[in-house]
Design brief:
Layout: H1 6-14, E1 19-24, H2 29-40, E2 44-50, H3 52-61, E3 70-73, H4 77-89, E4 95-98, H5 103-111, E5 125-131, E6 139-142, H6 152-168, E7 175-180, H7 190-203, E8 211-217, H8 218-222, H9 224-230, E9 242-244, H10 248-261, E10 265-271, E11 277-278, H11 286-318
Parallel strand pairs: 1-2, 1-4, 2-3, 4-11, 6-9, 7-8, 7-9
Antiparallel strand pairs: 5-6, 5-10, 10-11
Helix pairs in contact: 1-11, 2-11, 4-5
């Protein structure tokens, strides 16, 4: 089977009706151009939220056509984040995208607990969708951007978020490796005990939709030869599609290692909120940024279908 490419994911998103995306503070060339390119590709319909004079100035300076998209004026970045989140709460947008404001500023508006945020019962987490030239699969890495030191329950949500995304992208049942420094369970490395507990949680149906194994060291998670040498008999070892890092530092270093030493492309979104959240970096390539938009668009449709199914089931129960 051929490796799924970023172009394949973009094409999949283009087959779906474009949803509205609230773009918070797109006040530099990279974020504004990405939003408009996504619009031109049919990935979503942006609502540009920020100081309208500044957005128009950036558009003029960089020859970006914003004549066919909505603008929502706000005085500053803090208000942009709050307004973008409000557009989602009001049902006027089904996607959220970070512009040129700081990630912390946007996420503060997302996670506020006064009824104006986008929290759900699921913990928020970030997934990198990485195209590594030397690997036969798209590789998901989580969590490398949101949860600094996740506890057991948070890791369960991190894994479930990644599995749900993998399934929504129609990539098949994912093989999930819970990473550590070693593949044996040992009290000397607490993460190995959590990995074993997470595998048992999957056995008990507390995590569903994927094949989970751990602890696995990085080599025997992705290398069949390394797994064979270690004598690891596993459906996941050597064939992992989702790598679950023990903490944010490890995940972030792994993702950036692959990007800068292995020439990997890295798209990514935040999951677990009411809508998918697109976080792009100025260091990302254009194709990686657009793939992030496409991934979010596909996942937004999956969430909508899931909600419809739940409503239909509830109506059947009432009857």
């Amino acid at each position: 089977m051929d490796k799924v490419s970023y172009e394949h994911i973009i094409a999949k998103a283009q087959e779906l009706p474009a949803k509205f995306c609230a773009v918070a503070h797109p006040c530099d060339e990279v974020s504004l151009r990405c939003a408009i390119e996504a619009f031109e590709l049919g990935l979503f319909k942006p609502i540009l939220v920020g100081p309208t004079a500044r957005i128009r100035q950036v558009a003029r300076e960089h020859d970006i056509d914003i004549s066919n998209v909505q603008l929502q004026h706000t005085p500053h970045s803090h208000a942009s984040a709050e307004t973008a989140v409000r557009l989602v709460l009001e049902g006027r947008a089904e996607l959220l995208m970070k512009g040129s404001l700081h990630t912390d500023e946007l996420m503060h508006a997302v996670v506020t607990t006064d009824g104006r945020g986008l929290r759900t019962e699921r913990r928020l987490s970030h997934v990198f969708i990485m195209d590594v030239p030397s690997y036969q699969e798209l590789l998901f890495i989580t969590d490398a951007a949101i949860n600094i030191f996740p506890d057991l329950d948070t890791k369960a949500d991190i894994i479930q978020n990644a599995i749900d995304l993998h399934l929504a992208l129609d990539l098949g049942t994912p093989k999930v490796a819970i990473l550590s420094a070693v593949e044996q369970v040992t009290a000397k490395i607490p993460g190995t005990i959590e990995a074993a507990a997470l595998c048992k949680m999957a056995d008990r149906g507390q995590i569903t939709g994927g094949i989970i194994d751990g602890p696995l060291a990085m080599d025997n998670a992705i290398s069949p030869e390394a797994a064979a040498i270690k004598g690891i008999n596993s459906e996941v070892a050597g064939k992992a599609q989702i790598l679950v890092a023990p903490d944010l530092e490890a995940g972030n270093m792994l993702a950036k290692n692959l990007s800068f030493l292995s020439s990997a492309q890295s798209a990514g979104i935040v999951l677990g909120a009411r809508v998918p959240i697109i976080l792009t970096s100025r260091a990302d390539s254009s194709i990686a940024r657009l793939t992030s938009c496409a991934v979010a668009a596909v996942y937004a449709h999956a969430l909508q279908e899931q909600q419809r199914a739940l409503l239909a089931a509830a109506e059947d129960d009432d009857e």
